[in-house]
Design goal:
Blueprint lengths: L1 H8 L13 H9 L3 H8 L7 H32 L3 H17 L6 H20 L3 H13 L6 H16 L4 H15 L6 H17 L3 H14 L12 H17 L3 H17 L3 H17 L3 H17 L3 H17 L10 H4 L5 H15 L2 H14 L2 H5 L1 H16 L5 E3 H8 L3 H13 L6 E3 L4 E3 L5 H22 L18 H7 L3
Antiparallel strand pairs: 1-3, 2-3
Helix pairs in contact: 1-4, 2-6, 3-4, 4-5, 4-6, 5-6, 6-7, 6-8, 7-9, 8-9, 8-10, 9-10, 10-11, 10-12, 11-12, 12-13, 12-14, 13-14, 14-15, 15-16, 16-18, 18-19, 19-21, 21-23, 22-23
Length: 510
């Protein structure tokens, strides 16, 4: 009774390590429950059941034999796969061949083993670099999707696409995704999987810098989430939020400020309606960068902190740490007096190696520790974060201003050369900084350029009025320029550039 012996060995095997955790539980339910009937069938001639009973037992044994062959063949191949991939490929192919020969007789559980064997054939051929053979096997897997449950089919497709996406052959990746979309398209019960497949393809193109291609794919996805009159279908709010989140990332990557502003208006109400932290985190982070680049650091601080909280909620520790860095930068540049690391959520990251440099910078900034600030600044520069690097000069200037205000507190007159030595910068830079501080009303004094002094002793009523007027004029200019679009044309960096981004997305309501 070799079939029964093989089945009994399965009780000691581990689950399928391709991620199908429920395979053994399901298989065991069909195979194990009928073993007793097979034993009775062999002894039917001796137990008085008669010829008719014996014939039924023989038929059940034959049926069980097919199920056991498929199940045993699958687990044998899976057990071989880690040690000998080529042998496992042959074994998986035998399981598929057996399933095809008896297609009309297969129970659902046996079909599932055949389907999973096809999945492993696809993955093994991909690993061996047999691209044409892999495509043929993958097409066969896609044709069999209606014969298995949704969970099994979605897991297989996602696994294959993840493995394919790890490669560098853009043409082959596009070929696999196009084949997948072709098989899933037009099937009402596969709309969700089709959306996931096409969106994943967009993400891959974005990651490779193929912005134009990603935009075109997003257009297709957007139309699938709109009503016939072109308005957003709010019943598909989660999908819309994902589309807009990726569109925001593209506009940030291409430095398209007009598209960013349009997308901000489009998504600010949608994010309130759809509480999906995966998309919320991305959008909030991008908004924070937009406000930071515009110098609106208080608003940037709020967006970065929301993004940090959302990344924590979904368990994305790396992106949470990145946003925490941005929170610290925005806190310093907004003039925030509270330390972000005082919050319980942020405190747990304070000793993390990736956060220590920005934490040291914040501490030195708060204490006006010039030497400590310079040491921490070198560490932050070495981190290589593009957003932080863009605003390092602003952080340095803000720190110098704070340090000057603190140093001059005890003096009535102070030499500009002395301040330059304390801050380790040029006297001309100190003088420029003093002019700014006087105009902003943070320093009450005047500069004696002949003697190179900052005079804080004399009555400055006339000068104060003059500087106050200059300050008001400066603030009015700042307010006016902040409401004007950037004079710089959109960047055309990246594979597709951003030149068509606005025209493409604005026409569709982005």
């Amino acid at each position: 009774n070799q079939s029964k012996k093989k089945l009994s060995l399965l009780n000691t095997m581990s689950d399928d390590d391709w991620g199908d955790d429920d395979a053994w539980d399901d298989a065991g339910g069909d195979g194990g429950g009928d073993d007793d009937w097979g034993d009775d069938g062999e002894d039917a001639g001796d137990d008085g059941w008669g010829d008719e009973a014996g014939g039924d037992a023989d038929e059940e044994e034959e049926e069980m034999s097919l199920e056991v062959q498929i199940e045993n063949g699958f687990y044998e191949a899976d057990d071989t796969r880690l040690d000998d991939g080529k042998l496992a490929l042959t074994q998986f192919e035998k399981v598929v061949e057996l399933g095809e020969q008896h297609a009309a007789e297969l129970e659902d559980q046996s079909m599932e083993f055949v389907f999973k064997s096809l999945k492993n054939i696809v993955l093994l051929r991909l690993g061996f670099g047999q691209k044409d053979e892999m495509i043929a096997s993958y097409e066969k897997l896609l044709n069999n999707i209606p014969r298995v449950t949704r969970n099994v089919s979605e897991e297989a497709v996602k696994r294959v696409l993840n493995e394919v996406g790890d490669g560098n052959d853009s043409d082959f990746i596009g070929r696999v995704y196009a084949l997948t979309a072709k098989h899933l398209g037009g099937k009402a019960d596969q709309d969700r999987l089709l959306f996931r497949v096409n969106f994943k393809h967009c993400e891959l193109m974005f990651a490779r810098g193929e912005y134009k291609e990603a935009e075109q794919q997003l257009q297709v996805l957007l139309r699938s989430c709109q009503t016939p009159d072109g308005e957003d279908d709010l019943s598909k709010g989660a999908e819309l939020l994902e589309i807009y989140a990726l569109a925001v990332q593209i506009s940030v990557a291409t430095k398209n400020e007009l598209a960013m502003a349009s997308l901000y208006e489009k998504t600010k109400n949608l994010t309130a309606a759809v509480k999906d932290p995966r998309s919320q985190s991305v959008i909030r982070e991008c908004w924070g960068q937009m406000f930071g680049d515009q110098g609106q650091w208080q608003r940037a601080y709020g967006e970065f902190y929301n993004a940090f909280s959302n990344y924590q909620e979904i368990g994305n520790r790396e992106k949470a740490k990145r946003c925490l860095k941005y929170v610290v930068v925005a806190n310093m540049l907004s003039g925030g007096k509270s330390n972000p690391f005082d919050a319980r959520e942020a405190k747990v990251y304070q000793s993390d190696a990736d956060i220590q440099s920005i934490g040291l910078l914040r501490t030195a900034y708060e204490k006006c520790d010039v030497d400590g600030f310079q040491r921490a600044l070198r560490l932050v520069t070495d981190d290589g974060d593009a957003f932080v690097a863009r605003h390092l000069s602003s952080m340095v200037a803000d720190f110098h201003a704070r340090a000057i205000v603190k140093i001059i507190t005890s003096y009535r007159r102070v030499r500009i050369q002395f301040l330059a030595e304390q801050l380790d910068i040029k006297p001309s830079e100190v003088e420029t900084m003093l002019v700014r501080l006087i105009v902003e009303g943070k320093v009450q004094g005047r500069i004696d350029q002949v003697r190179g002094l900052l005079d804080l002793s004399a009555s400055q009523n006339a000068d104060a009025a003059k500087y106050s007027a200059i300050h008001s004029w400066s603030r009015a200019l700042d307010s006016l320029t902040s409401k004007m679009p950037s004079a710089n044309p959109p960047s055309t960096s990246g594979a597709g550039g951003a030149r068509g981004f606005m025209s493409t997305f604005m026409r569709s309501g982005f």
